[in-house]
Amino acid sequence: MDKNTLEKLSAFERIDYAIAMFIREKIHSPLLNKTLSRINRGEIMLVLILPYLAYAAWQGSLPYPWWIVIPYAGLVAYANDRFVLVLKKLIARKRPLVTVAGKVDQNPDMKHSFPSAHASNSMTAALILVFLFGFPEWFLVLSLLAGIGRLLSLHHFPSDVLGGWLIGTCFGTLGLFLGRWLLPLLFGTT
Q1: 91, exposed or middle or buried, with CB in 10 Å at 0-12, 13-18, 19+?
Q2: What count of other Cβ atoms lies within 10 Å of the Cβ of residue 110?
Q3: 93-144: per-residue pLDDT in tens?
Q4: CATH classification at residue 23
Q5: What is the rounded distance in angstroms from the CA atom of residue 39 to the CA atom of residue 34?
Q6: Are residues 32 and 161 in contact, defined by beta-carbon separation less than 8 angstroms?
Q7: Exposure b/e, 97-108, CB count within 10 A at least 16 = b
Q8: Which residues, 6+ apart, have CB-to-CB distance to 117 below 8 Å?
């Protein structure tokens, strides 16, 4: 990025670019990018959720029937995801892979950086799993890892990830309140 363009950015945007440049110069590598792209997926979170769900169902430690956990958390995360995708299209901020690393890619997704859907969706799901269904608190770390992975792979700026976590927290909280009202009505449990 040239000096003239950099001067036009707000202090917040300059911090975003400085962190992204540091990651590009000191941390980012093709192997790291490939590795993070493979493990930083929703399917991986599901692979971690299912064994705990089976264990908790077997132990009888879930507050609601085991079969409602994935559909409910998934439905709230899906609503969150649709909202985030609308924001991405409206804001149309280019990803650091394009603006910082100079990657040339005709994929339209390369100009949809803010907010991070990975950070947002993982936060939504983690909050519901932990605070509504009684999963261990370490499931919240999965959202942290999702956001950090998106930073290190240069798919997002720090503000994209922070924005994603904030939106995910809002949707997760709404899902939590809705679930605490709706699920006892449906299942008569608390």
Answers
A1: middle
A2: 16
A3: 777 765 555 555 555 555 677 899 989 999 999 999 999 999 999 999 988 8
A4: 1.20.144
A5: 9
A6: no
A7: bbbbeeeeeeee
A8: 81, 84, 85, 88, 164
Q: How many domains does the chain have?
A: 1
Yes or no: say if 95 and 155 are a contact pair by the CB < 8 Å rule: yes
For 84, other C-beta atoms within 10 Å of its C-beta total: 25
More confident residue, 18 or 63: 63
Contact 76, 92 (CB under 8 A): no
User: Could you say which DSSP state residue 190 is in?
Assistant: -
* Full-model pTM: 0.83
Contact 131, 51 (CB under 8 A): no
Please give the residue range of the domain that contains residue 139.
3-187
- Torsion from C-alpha of 56, 57, 63, 66, nearest 10 degrees: 120
Please report, as a single letter, which amino acid is at residue 17.
Y
Q: Are 167 and 117 in contact (CB under 8 A)?
A: no
Q: Is the pLDDT of residue 58 over 80?
A: yes
